[in-house]
Amino acid sequence: MREPVGVDAEGTAAQQRPLSEQQRRAWIAELIEQLADPSYHRRQNAQWQLQQLGMDAFEQLREATMHPNVHIASTARYIINSQNIVWWLDSDSVEVRSYLRDYNTLDENQRTNKILLLGEKGSPDALLALCRLARYERFESLSKRAALTLLSALTRAPTGEWEPKSSAADANPRPDVDPQVMESIALAIGDSQRPAIQWIRAFLADVQSPDSVDIRKWEQLAAEELQRHRDEQQRAATRDVLELYRWIGTWVSGRVSREAALELVRPCLEIVNTDSYSIREFCVWALDRCQMPELVRDLAELHPSIFDTFGDLKYLLAESYLHIGDVATADKVAAEASDALGNPPQEARRLAQRLGLPKDVAAARFETARQLTARGMFDWAEREYHRALEENVTSYEEVIRISFAEFYWFGGDNAKAAEVLRPLVETAEEDLTQRRMVNPRIRSNYYFYAGLAAIDGGDANAARIFLRKAYEADPSNPDIVIAMREVADDDAFNRFYQQCFEEMRDRFRQSVLESEARLAQANDRSDRRSAEQILAMDCNQLAWLLGKCEEDAEEAIQLSQRSLELSPDEPAYLDTLARCYFSAGQVAKAVETQRKAVRLAPHERQMLAQLHEFERALQAREQGAPADSLQD
Question: pTM, whole model, 2 decimals?
Answer without folding.
Answer: 0.79
